[in-house]
Amino acid sequence: MLIVDSLLKHHLYNPDRIAFSDGDRTLDYRSFFAHAERTSNVLLHHGVRPGDRVAILLPRGVDAAYCIYGILFTGACYIPLDIQNPASRLSYIIDDVQPHCLIGSGDKPEWCSDNVEWIDINNSEFFEDEPQSDTNVIYRSSPEDIAAILYTSGSTGHPKGVSISCRAMDAFVEWSASTFSINHDDRIASLAPFHFDLSLFDLFTSVHCGAHTSFIPQSLTLAPGKLVAWFEENAITSWYTVPSILGFLAMRGGLAPDRLPAMKRILFAGEVFPLPGLTKLANALPNVELYNLFGPTETNVCTYWQVDRERLNTLSAIPIGKAACKAELMVDASGELLVQGPCVMSGYWKNGDVQHSDQPWYHTGDRVSYNDQEELLYHGRMDRMIKSSGYRIEPAEIESVINDFDQVESSVVIGESDPISGNRLVAAVVGNGVDIEGMRAHLRQSLAAYMQPYRFVQLDELPLLSNGKVDYQAVEGMI
């Protein structure tokens, strides 16, 4: 696997370069490799074998990063869990993915299945063996082996696991490293949680190039001025994030042409970047290359567009550009974007295995068209998926939980346009005297924070089309 080989290379030939830093904690490539190797030894001691799954319940940071590499050393695949998720959602994922081990900190959670081994990274007896730096014990994965399973919101009312192969991972790493000219002098800022596919750049492209990844303190996400100062203090050259954060930074971060002198490039993905916000960012940072990356988790990045500042004032929407990661693209008669190539997932995880598709093209569900420069334009979802603050959200999963509340007869969740997050979730509910605060408490027990509607509207009934289906356009007009 390319990323494992890259870590081996830097461990051997560039051991003193900084690999990852998290606050005052810094690991060079020698130390990072040693931590990953020690983790691998622990997993092997617990019976982990190639093809197994190992889940991680740790905050974004150095510990989770070396655990991920340790898992890959064994030939197993990693499943990053969102520590902010409610217990019911985490329990569902564990039951679905059936991991051999769960790596975390402290005592084993009560919601975790008894047949899943718990490994506490704070337990010194698990990590007492000294690393041997024996590169021969690292498993050599094949291209089709699964490297990661990332869980996203599912249209069935439950999260679904996207299985990403070593082939797909390597395709993205090679493409992103060469396209953005990342090298060992780069310092990459990391803010994306590890269950979000943007993190693949921070974790793997950086190591492939021998770069230094610095984890952004979570507290700075709500303090744009301090975040800009942190970028300057750490001489950050590259950042891959979501438009909602960049728009917030452009409006309130005090950006100006003389700020962020080390920054070379900013990549963004996960949602539509409102044109006014992008224009403001482009004007504030005239010397920074800006790139719009596009693709669902199932394809990671399948298209990209380098922001052309001279065209921004003439555009009505930001292009998603042309093919990335050796993807082949097709737009069918309905306007849906279809993708095939090495970047496409192996399939969804279900019933203890990967459910491979027999279709040669992956149907993204995104409606697109070409402009006169042969660039793709994005026109929204063909289904009901909502993108908010970089997260892909299936309304059906939220509606399923709302409908479980005793007083609710039916519900509809839609996205309300918002200049910061792209979309805010609004729930229309039908029921007799629904206790909204009680329902909010009910939702907090089952749904991630980013899936919580910010507003509820009570209706007497849901408007229907002539075929008996919900008239979603009419609902939007009523709320």
Tally of discrete structural domains: 2
Distance between the termini: 50 Å
> What is the general shape?
globular
Q: In angstroms, what is the radius of gyration?
A: 22 Å
List unreliable stretches of 5+ residues. Answer: none
CATH architecture of the largest domain: 3-Layer(aba) Sandwich
Fraction of residues in H or I helices: 25-40%
Structural class category: alpha/beta
Biggest sheet strand order reads 2-1-10-9-11-12-13-14-15
Number of helices: 12
Please provide a written account of the structure.
The protein has helices at residues 2-13, 29-45, 62-73, 87-97, 166-179, 199-208, 224-233, 243-252, 275-284, 395-403, 436-444, 472-478, and strands at residues 18-22, 25-28, 53-56, 77-80, 101-104, 117-120, 146-152, 160-165, 187-190, 212-215, 238-241, 265-268, 289-294, 303-306, 322-323, 328-331, 336-340, 347-350, 353-356, 362-370, 376-381, 386-388, 391-393, 408-418, 422-431, 455-459. The strands form six sheets. A nine-stranded mixed sheet has the order 2-1-10-9-11-12-13-14-15, with helices on both faces. Strand 25 (422-431), helix 11 (436-444) and strand 26 form a beta-alpha-beta unit. The protein folds into two domains: 2-380, ANL, N-terminal domain (Rossmann fold, 3-Layer(aba) Sandwich), CATH 3.40.50; 391-478, ANL, C-terminal domain (GMP Synthetase, Chain A, domain 3), CATH 3.30.300. The chain is of the alpha/beta class and 479 residues long. Helix 2 (29-45) crosses helix 3 and helix 8 packs across helix 9. It is globular. The termini are far apart. The longest helix is centred in the first third of the chain and has 17 residues, at 29-45.
